[in-house]
Design brief:
Blueprint: H1 5-22, H2 25-44, H3 52-76, H4 98-102, H5 106-112, H6 117-128, H7 133-140, H8 144-161, H9 169-185, H10 188-193, E1 195-204, E2 216-217, H11 219-232, E3 237-244, E4 247-254, E5 257-267, E6 270-277, H12 284-290, E7 298-300, H13 301-306
Parallel strand pairs: 1-6
Antiparallel strand pairs: 1-2, 3-4, 3-7, 4-5, 5-6
Length: about 300
């Protein structure tokens, strides 16, 4: 066994932890790389590591905690709403169960932003990744009773802001298709029919491209906002339904260049929240995935009008 094999075995877990902690694919990859460098140095120095998994989990969690400290200050100065970096698809090493998929959704990751870094670490390590409180306490350098209290407080906080509603995947996909068809056609009545009454749209441009700097709230206002955007779209605009953070999302391309990614939070009354990322720094991963790949499941504006509903 080489020194790097234990690290490679646990690399998917490390990325899964880091992405949920940081909400950024780029930062998560950097955290994983830093963890590897520390692993390599420790092995080179002859350090005895009895449990590689525990050692690696501890290291990456502490790296993420340090990064979150500076990230919170940066996000306080962020122009407009901050949204996570979209994750194309959801490989089995990132999300294997319904709970896993829920924990990489935009709605979940945005809620995590309301927790302090330590609350987020304790909550994720225990409730999502299944570490007992004794292990979590060692990772975050706190007592077991403290971690229990923090997890309980974080759990209540999350539950209050995210009522549980089990969405049938087929229903979510049909709703996404109907939404896309209505937006592309500029069909306001059909668009309104897909939206919950108190729907909110969040746009993340990061001050680098034009985007609404405040959330747009309410069915009629959101429908008007989206209809105006549709009318401004050039003829070369193309829309694709792709798996984004484990759920159907819409990628908008103009002349083959990714312009935005939209994901949805769905309730029993329709689309509850729309998260639109247009910050180009956060679209590179999606763009890399789509580069050179023939669009699948996508429509141009003209194609969409003539295609029967699926």
């Amino acid at each position: 066994m080489t020194d790097s094999e234990p690290f490679l075995d646990h690399r998917p877990l490390l990325f899964a932890i880091a992405y949920r902690m940081l909400g950024s694919v780029t930062d998560a990859e950097d955290a994983v790389q830093e963890t590897y460098l520390r692993w390599h140095r420790a092995r080179g120095a002859g350090d005895e590591i009895r449990s590689p998994k525990a050692w690696l989990t501890t290291v990456i969690s502490r790296i993420c905690l340090d990064l979150l400290g500076s990230a919170r200050a940066q996000r306080e100065r962020y122009i407009g709403p901050w949204l996570p970096e979209p994750l194309a698809g959801a490989a089995p090493d990132i999300a294997e169960t319904a709970v896993d998929f829920e924990s990489i959704s935009f709605a979940f990751l945005v809620l995590l932003e309301s927790l302090s870094p330590k609350e987020r670490a304790v909550f994720l390590l225990h409730d999502v990744f299944g570490y007992d409180f004794a292990a979590v306490g060692e990772i975050v350098k706190e007592s077991e009773p403290y971690c229990r209290q923090v997890a309980r407080r974080a759990r209540i906080h999350m539950a209050e802001r995210r009522p549980r509603f089990k969405v049938d995947p087929d229903h979510r996909e049909r709703l996404t298709t109907r939404f896309l068809r209505a937006v592309a056609d500029g069909d306001t009545p059909s668009l309104i029919a897909t939206l919950a009454e108190d729907v909110t749209i969040f746009s993340d441009g990061g001050g680098k491209v034009n985007a609404a700097r405040k959330p747009v709230i309410g069915r009629d206002k959101v429908a008007l906002f989206l209809t105006k955007l549709s009318h401004l779209a050039p003829p070369a605009t193309r829309y694709q339904i792709e798996s984004i953070n484990g759920q159907p999302g819409i990628v908008t391309l103009i002349d083959g260049t990714v312009q935005s990614v939209a994901t949805f939070d769905v309730s029993e009354t329709g689309i509850q929240a729309i998260y639109v990322v247009v910050n180009p720094d956060k679209l590179r991963g999606i763009a890399d995935r789509l580069t050179g790949v023939a669009p699948h499941g996508g429509w141009s504006r003209r194609d969409l009008r003539s295609e029967p509903e699926r």
